[in-house]
Amino acid sequence: MIRYPLRPDVWRGMIDDASAGWLERAAARTDAFRAAGRFDESSSIWSQVKRVYMEVQGFKCGFCERRLEKSRFGNVEHDIEHFRPKRLVEQWPNEKVQIDRGVAFDFELGSDADPGYYLLPYNIENYLISCKTCNTALKSNAFPVAGPRTIAGDQPRALRGERPFLVYPLGTVDQDDAEDVIRFEGILPVPVATRGHRRRRAEVTIAFFALDSREVLLEERADAILALHVAMSCLDDARESTRAAATLLVERLISPRSPHANCARSFHDLTLAEPARATAYATAALDYLESIAD
Ligand SMILES: [Zn+2]
């Protein structure tokens, strides 16, 4: 994960440009949920602003950083995800996750709730784009917290007291920058903090989205690391055309718009600071790719 910088006024402007009057229509719907005491409607309007999130996130999943389809056909691959569940909150890890995936923690992750965060279905700071694996298969209606749940909260920024475990990557809604929570050692995500809530956030987020075991993520990160390793070693090549290509490739791979940017940036920083360790990770990435080759 990485943070995507986004100022609140710019954010609202983008929403308004995408769908004139949407913010007012959203506010009216929220008022209806407030009166009813729960989320309930027959058709939704959040797909009208979905493209804003696709573009801000560089057409990547906000959780696993996989690249998703960019063209006008891409809508189907991108899920607009409600970070805090709108209808109900299911406990995580549930029994199935504990048994099937061996996920267990020795600290509390909050209880379930019905209704869910019924004042947030139309809050623009409660959306992000995610892939179907992260959203549908893994996140579903879960939202683990370390603090007390505030179901009737209507502004995500004001809900930091819930101490969520999952990291929200857009703007500064979340006090933690995702790259201050999770970095990468080679192809594997690791917590940055050695203790405290920030370390637990990393542990939970990694386990929640299986960021350390999904084969496609490991394979794509290994590709990125190898490309970066070769490109960085060609930055001083004798041939001008090779130097230019290497420079462009490095820039592209560590750009926030590139898939697995956190992994690539971790490797890039390590190459500058400790080249021998970085080379060992590049070798391990190559070994990994060879081990999964047919
Ligand atoms: Zn994903």
In the predicted model, the low-confidence regions spanning at least 5 consecutive residues are none
Strand content: 5-15%
Order of strands, widest sheet: 1-2
> Approximately how much helix is present in the residues?
40-55%
- Straight-line N-to-C gap: 30 Å
The main sheet comes to: 2 strands, antiparallel
What general form does the structure show? Answer: globular
How many distinct beta strands? 4
Order of helices and strands: HHHEHEHHEEHHHHH
Give the overall average pLDDT.
96
Features:
single chain, 294 residues, mainly alpha, two-stranded antiparallel sheet, 11 helices, 4 strands, 44% helix, binds zinc ion
Describe this structure in words.
This protein is mainly alpha-helical. It contains 11 helices and 4 strands, in the order H-H-H-E-H-E-H-H-E-E-H-H-H-H-H. A two-stranded antiparallel ribbon has the order 1-2. It has a two-stranded antiparallel sheet with strand order 3-4. Strand 3 and strand 4 form a beta hairpin. The chain is globular. The model has no long low-confidence stretch (mean pLDDT 96). The structure holds zinc ion. The site of zinc ion (ZN) has 8 residues, from helix 5.
Write the layout of secondary structure elements.
Elements: H1 8-18, H2 22-36, H3 50-56, E1 79-82, H4 95-101, E2 127-130, H5 132-139, H6 178-181, E3 182-185, E4 188-191, H7 196-208, H8 215-233, H9 240-254, H10 261-273, H11 275-292
Antiparallel strand pairs: 1-2, 3-4
Helix pairs in contact: 8-9, 8-10, 8-11, 10-11
The structure holds zinc ion.
